[in-house]
Write a structure and sequence with these properties.
5 strands, 8 helices
Length: about 200
């Protein structure tokens, strides 16, 4: 059995549950989002999303992740060299739907007084956890916190924005084209694919 098989087995069920109630999720957004084809979509999501930014140079992308997603961890690792070299700025957007532990794990990051440090620490631990045999409940040893109502609302809004992209899961990357419109990269992509995309970003 592959080490990610436990998570893979539940992804389909959790995705179906998370994306089957568009009205309920959309209700967490105060007003409807403009279509992705409109330039105003990028500005609007920047105002509504709760994220952790890493990097200060290069084009900005939004990377939606669930703490219990091993492929999201892989995506994080692919982005790091581009961030360190000043070629990319990533805004990491947590959502919580893969497992019951996803919400308290996301809360541990969002409720930290130093969110970026908390995210970096989380990713170090996630790398070790995903490398070990997985329990039925998912990765073990990851930080958790009791989510506040504000955190729960933030995660709901993040999820509603993810749903608006019609992506069927995470990781999912949103980027702004030079035309001002928003594009979507669903699933994990390589560092090379990101490098190929960079010249086309605003």
């Amino acid at each position: 059995m592959r080490k990610h098989s436990v998570i893979t087995a539940v992804v389909g069920t959790m995705l179906a549950a998370a994306f089957s109630s568009p009205v309920a999720l959309a209700a967490t957004v105060s007003s409807p989002l403009p279509p992705m084809a409109q330039a105003s979509y990028w500005t609007t999501i920047g105002q509504r999303l709760t994220y952790i930014q890493e990097g200060r140079r290069g084009p900005i992308i939004y990377d939606f992740f669930d703490p219990n997603c091993p492929y999201c961890h892989g995506m994080y690792n692919e982005e790091q060299p581009l961030i360190r070299s000043g070629k990319l700025t990533v805004r990491y957007v947590p959502v919580a739907y893969l497992m019951p532990s996803s919400t308290p794990e996301a809360a541990a990051i969002l409720q930290s007084s130093h969110r970026l440090s908390a995210l970096r620490h989380f990713e170090v631990l996630a790398g070790k956890s995903f490398a070990a045999p997985l329990a039925a409940s998912g990765p073990i040893g990851l930080p958790t916190a009791k989510p506040t109502p504000q955190t729960i609302h933030a995660l709901q809004v993040n999820m509603a924005v993810l749903q608006s992209t019609h992506s069927m899961g995470v990781p999912a990357i949103l980027y702004q084209r030079k035309s001002g419109t928003t594009g979507l990269l669903p699933g994990m992509v390589s560092r090379g694919e990101l490098l190929t995309l960079l010249p086309n970003l605003k």
